[in-house]
Amino acid sequence: MRVLIADDYQRATAALPALVAHAQGLDVQVLGALPEALEARAALLQPAHALLLIRERTRIDAALLERLPQLRLISQTGKVGAHVDVAACTARGVAVAEGVGSPIAPAELTWALVMAAMRRLPAYGAALQAGRWQDTGDAVLGRTLHGRTLGVWSYGKIGRLVAGYGRAFGMQVLVWGGEAARAAAQADGVDVAASVEALFERSDVLSLHLRLVPATRHQVDAALLARMRPDALLVNTSRAELIAPGALLAALEAGRPGMAALDVFEHEPAVPQREPLLTHPRVLAMPHLGYVEQDSYALYLGTALDNVRAFADGTPRNLVNPEALTGNR
């Protein structure tokens, strides 16, 4: 079975032991970033019997599927998201399998961004490389975390880890989210905000860990951001679409919040022409590295390849659309 791994920006999967350990009996090829033009993308993907998708990088829609007559399976690393049109896959008899993930790497990256932004490490490092000792040019000092308030919006697997990091650093942790999230936080002895508005008003550091669903899309709007303190930090390693378009840039220009640390953008791969936040002086920006880490890749890739092998062996598993196998293409 010919398997193409699409949009591996770093071509890192080819060097992973998991590729050898889990790909036995499969013809696996790793592709770098795919071109944006539909026909060019389809030409590269056309030989595939199975596509292995790295998180949400590769969009699979009806127009692309029509140009991939040999495709039988999409094997997703982690959970299937909105980037895959499952209904279109089912209509064309293409099965979609999803894998597993881990909250550890994104939670640790979140905390790395918190510490780097609060202590202004990128600015100090850039100044040092330019020959200036402790001189960032703006006389603004970094700040410690101890004694300050960490706001965590939603309390799932990642949010719970980040809250734990905050407590370990001596922060007061404040949680908001749905009823289940608030109940879980209270069960863990973590304070719950009186309202989402209170969360934004009280947080020195506010980290977003909401799932992107229709109800949460653009939920962080100008009114909420305006409630943040002028020296507060907003961290988003979850989904860019949680924030209303243009709202964060306008809020930073208005001075509330004072800083942002971002790992996600609406247009990825992000470039300054599309994403002015990339070059904003009070934004620490990373290229969606939350899950881009050796152990996470091994877990994601190993499970996704195991799903391909099971499909090739005639024992498909972890399908989100098993009905795709009952019809004829």
UniProtKB/TrEMBL annotation:
Record keywords, A-Z: NAD, Oxidoreductase
InterPro entries from the UniProt entry: D-2-hydroxyacid_DH, D-isomer_2_OHA_DH_cat_dom, D-isomer_DH_NAD-bd, NAD(P)-bd_dom_sf
Domain annotation D-isomer specific 2-hydroxyacid dehydrogenase NAD-binding: ranges: 112-290
Signal peptide positions on this chain: none
Superkingdom of origin organism: Bacteria
TM stretches of this protein: none
Ranges for domain D-isomer specific 2-hydroxyacid dehydrogenase catalytic: 24-321
CDD domains: PGDH_like_1
PANTHER family: D-ISOMER SPECIFIC 2-HYDROXYACID DEHYDROGENASE FAMILY PROTEIN (AFU_ORTHOLOGUE AFUA_6G10090)
Family of the protein in this entry: Belongs to the D-isomer specific 2-hydroxyacid dehydrogenase family.
Name of the protein this chain belongs to: D-2-hydroxyacid dehydrogenase family protein
Organism: Pseudoxanthomonas winnipegensis
